[in-house]
Amino acid sequence: MNEAEINAESNTEISAESDAENTAIGARLERTNELLQRVLAEVAKTPSTHAIFVDAGYVYAAAGLLVAGTEDRRSFDLDAEGLIEAFIDKARIIFADSRLLRVYWYDGARRRIHTTEQQSIAELPDVKVRLGNLNANNQQKGVDSLIRTDLESLARHRAISDAALVGGDEDLVSAVEAAQGYGARVHLWGIEAGEGSNQAEPLLWEVDSQRTFDLEFCKPYVTRRPVTTYEHEGEPPPSRDQVRFLGAQIAATWLAERGREAMAELLPGHPYLPGPVDQDLLIEAEKLLQRSLRGHSMLRRSLRDGFWQHLQSQF
Fold this sequence. Notes:
Blueprint lengths: L2 H43 L2 E8 H13 L7 E3 L1 H15 L3 E12 L6 H7 L4 E8 L5 E2 L1 H14 L5 E5 L6 H9 L3 E7 L9 H6 L2 E5 L1 H4 L3 E3 L15 H19 L1 H5 L10 H15 L7 H17 L2
Parallel strand pairs: 1-3, 1-6, 3-4, 6-7, 7-8
Antiparallel strand pairs: 2-9, 4-5
């Protein structure tokens, strides 16, 4: 066999090998396309899923101010069950082709122990209550991080395609970014503010859409509590020593209920109490005395003195 014949035979073998390889590649591509089409078909049949994330602190403050004129939770009642149902109904309209995963209700509680109200909310169907801490100034701690953890985790595992976030804190921006990074769309829901805005601008810029609920929407779920008055005509007011002793009693009770760490946070502010704590102290004292101390500045000072005296004796 001469050189030309050898080259021809070699080329024939190479061509045959190439054809076989191309055939194999074509078969694999066809198989891959078939599998991809099946996956896409399954995805098309799988409904979208949404979840609602509610910052309860924001809802209480914004709805209370809009309807009752105050952010103080003690001054009004919030029908949380009715409001949650309204949020679910609204989501059902907005995300028409989507199913609800659940509603996440984020709130604060001392030592993360559910209050009676929070327990009743947790018992609602499709609702999960997540608790951050509540410090001595009645400020929520750790709620934003809980929202971020849940949003990011659900988005990462493709458990949700859309998230309705009811809140307004700028710290929630990182939660929005984390969820969007995994392909979820985040829709910010807010409550109408009487003046200006009750939602941070960076948060408004980051989300995929915005929606605001007005007074008409919120009014059925907020009821202002009647003001309690105490009538003691002809009776002398309690003595300063009595009120001072009462202040110490309240401090002892709070120390047992709220914990040493929470109460120790008050010490650097001596002799002044944060507004919410001072208001709580006054309300508790009036409840125990069954009379108002609003017009007795000296007695209120004695009340604070007794409170501080006991607190400082424990640290």
